[in-house]
Amino acid sequence: MNIEKIIKSKIIEKKRDMRLDYFLSSALYEDKGYYSNQNPIGGKNDFVTAPEISQMFGEIVGLYLYYIWRENINSKFNLIELGPGNGTLFKDISRSVSSYPDFLKNAKIKFIEINKKLIKIQKESLKKLSLNNINWSKQINYKTTRPSIIYSNEFFDCFPVRHFILKKHWYERYVSFNQIEKKLFFKNMHVKNKKLISFLNLYKKEKLLEISIQRNKYYEKICKFIKNRGGLFLTIDYGYFENIDNFTLQAIQNHKFSNVLEDIGKKDISSHVNFREFINIAKKYKLKIEEYCSQREFLIKYGILERKKTLSKSNINKKFNIELERLIGKDEMGDLFKCLIVSNL
């Protein structure tokens, strides 16, 4: 039975609509869910991430991480990537620091990944690097006395969210099933829990709230990990700081926007990250906000324009101009994606 049928049967059996975040957890993370079975990344799949667009992205990230290590650690440390995808980002990072071999020699490398298909792809992709200090894990929690450099790209956008909207009263979005038409549909349910209403009333001015408890808890674990052991966390993702006017939940299939409630388990479903919440959580743990800026600002600040010039000299075609525009263009990924760096170094 596929995940769509499983979700429908749960709604029918329990005679109860399914809360949006429970629906998303099932669609994305259960055994037959999207992230447990699919390889979503790449030109032939559902979406393309920045590392797949251009080697320059990973090279700039790599040089930044090396600089942080050299200036603040310069000894044995943990290098942790969350959701390594096809392994492309790490390959580009390793190439960019090849002139500084002490960086990876001193690193205990760990990939946090739950997708078995992607783990196989990552292992095959990284064979040529001849590194014997890479390990895989489903979770970031492990005992260590070393400082850690942790990084991610398009990792937090896939966490389940809850939707609330204020009309005369607060309503929460659920997923329901029409047994006659055999279709899933969204349904707003009146919020009656007093404790929840009290929390939602903090957002009366916005009149809507998109929140991911799981995302915030995962990020909080990282902040606590860095606070206790020392280190830095860099993340780049879809995101916003100001209040949103509309919910950001979206489905991507074959590089096109799609209906969230159709072909479940066969498409990526994501939402934008609330970086204001991330910054507040980091401050709660007294971490330094090293950077909060757009992807465009981060890449330019740390040398992508200079890197493009170097690559262009050794390559006659104009592909690097096109790649650069996709990464930093204001109408492309440049402003849509945000970069947040927090540390305890």
SS content category:
alpha/beta
CATH topology of the largest domain: Rossmann fold
- Mind telling me which CATH architecture of the largest domain this is? 3-Layer(aba) Sandwich
Number of domains: 2
What is the subunit arrangement here?
single chain
The biggest beta sheet, please?
8 strands, mixed
What top-tier CATH class of the largest domain fits best?
Alpha Beta
Distance between the termini: 49 Å
Total helix count? 15
What share of residues is helical? 25-40%
Measured by DSSP, the beta-strand proportion falls in 15-25%
Task: Provide an overview of this structure.
The protein is α/β, with parallel strands linked by helices. It folds into two domains: 3-32 and 162-210, no CATH class; 38-160 and 212-343, Rossmann fold, CATH 3.40.50.12710. Helix content is 39%, strand content 25%. It has helices spanning 3-14, 20-29, 34-37, 50-53, 55-72, 88-96, 102-105, 116-125, 194-200, 213-229, 275-284, 295-301, 304-313, 319-328, 333-336; strands at residues 18-19, 77-82, 107-112, 134-137, 148-153, 162-166, 170-178, 183-190, 208-211, 231-240, 250-253, 256-258, 268-270, 273-274, 288-294, 337-343. The strands form three sheets. Strands 2, 3, 4, 5, 10, 14, 15 and 16 form an eight-stranded mixed β-sheet that branches. Strands 1, 6, 7, 8 and 9 form a five-stranded antiparallel β-sheet that branches. β3, α8 (116-125) and β4 form a beta-alpha-beta unit. It is globular and about 65 Å long. The protein starts with a helix and ends with a strand. The mean pLDDT is 90.
